[in-house]
Amino acid sequence: MRDSSCDRIGIFDSGVGGLTVLKQLHRRLPHESILYFADTARLPYGTRSQSEILQFVREILSWMESERVKMVIMACNTSSALALEAVQTEFTFPILGLILPGARAAVTAGKRIGVVATPATAVSGAYRRAILEIDDLAQVWEVGCPEFVPLIEANRLWEPYTRTIAQQYLSSLLAQNIDTLIYGCTHYRHLSPLFTQLLPPAIHLIDPAEPVVSAAEQELELMGLANPIASSSIRFCTSGSPDEFAHKAQQWLGYRPTVEAIDLACLSTIHG
Ligand code: DGL
User: Is the pTM of this model over 0.85?
Assistant: First the structure.
């Protein structure tokens, strides 16, 4: 049997949000090589229907399969909420999502849990279900934040407008006296300095990126898939403009990555 331990771990998101997961993974498992895909041609995901998300996720996973990844982390809550369950049995490699690891981390932190997420994730109720399955005494409030992803992708993090919008989104959660807040969209972690300013310090901030990377580490060990060789590399691909993505990613990575353009629609016709 082919030894796949040196193969890459696939990570995908609609844009720069998944870089928050990539950074965690690279910090925690520096031996692992990574294939990062940003579906910027179809961003944002958070206002799309479930059937669109399912189609996009299947296309990305089929392409990653053809690139021989050994595992995929959906670094996108919207995909995790709307598509993970359906696709997990369709592929032979393990696929990890953010909802369960995020829910588990949240219930250990508090009982009154707020979730900021894309409209699609919030409406799906995925975090509420996952949290209540673990702790039926917890209370959950999910708020859809449609303006955040476009603002973050446009790098308008420090504008007064973004602050006002954030105050609006957080106000209903603060009115519920939450003790814990989940970043229910990987993009939002890029706003953490603003969140820290706007929220009382007693509120626990949960970034599901951390527990999903722990889950990935355990799964790799369990399946004998951990890379034994210290020779990692990160390959960046996008469905949109490589230049634009390289420019945006630079701010979060600290270096300008080389980015390849991938046409998933064209690949899916080639692969049938
Ligand atoms: N970063 C993704 C998420 O965690 C998707 C955001 C979007 O494209 O709307 O949900």
Answer: yes
134-167: pLDDT as tens digits: 999 999 999 999 999 999 999 999 999 999 999 9
239 lines ligand 1 (CB under 6 A): no
Is 228 in the same domain as 239? yes
Can you name the residues that pair with 117 across neighbouring β-strands?
144, 184
Q: Is 162 in the pocket of ligand 1 (CB under 6 A)?
A: no
Whether 4 maps to a domain, the answer reads: no
Q: How far is the CA of 33 from the centre of ligand 1 (A)?
A: 23
The count of structural domains within the chain is 2
**Whether residue 43 has its Cβ less than 6 Å from ligand 1:** yes
In angstroms, what is the span from residue 79 Cα to ligand 1's centroid? 8
* Whether the bond into 44 is cis, omega within 30 of 0: yes
Ligand 1 atom with least separation from CA of 98: 4
- The domain in which residue 35 lies consists of 9-98+210-271
